[in-house]
Amino acid sequence: MATYDELQIGDSASFTKTLSETDIYLFAGITGDLNPAHVDAVSAAGGMFKQRIAHGMLSASFISTVLAMRLPGPGTIYVGQDLQFRGPVFIGDTITARVECTEKLDQRKWAKFKTTVTNQDGKLVVAGEATVIPPAG
User: Fold this and answer.
1) Residue 136: pLDDT above 90?
2) What are the b/e assignments for 33-45, b being 16+ CB within 10 Å?
């Protein structure tokens, strides 16, 4: 964990996970997003990617994992996130969410982070910027 005062520009952390079919179905069930692109192999085979893809927000949710559990860590309050989805994530892909502190906002004691998610080939699949309130200490 890093409090606002301990946090340094350039500090980074990551989280890696291999996505399973179960992950896709659980996320679909929790969110209600049953888009055939995610849950129907026959329908997805005729689509843009020719196979089922993970929900973009599932991949992006691992950014929250890094911010909440690694850097700044427990007690962090997530206040904003800009996202761009850059590529598909397939069942069986291993993705890595990474955050890097890019700015400290002294007046409010907030921090900004570059956020990325890459697949096992190093391809960028999600890019963005998060704003958080780090733990007070």
Assistant:
1) no
2) eeeebbbeeeebe
| Residue 27 contacts residue 33 (beta carbons within 8 Å) | yes
**ω before 72 within 30° of 0 (cis)?**
yes
pLDDT tens figures, 81-104: 999 999 999 999 999 999 999 999
Amino acid sitting at position 60 = A
Domains of the chain with bracketed CATH = 12-133 (3.10.129.10)
Burial class (CB in 10 A: 0-12, 13-18, 19+), 8: exposed
Verdict on whether the full-model pTM lies above 0.85: yes
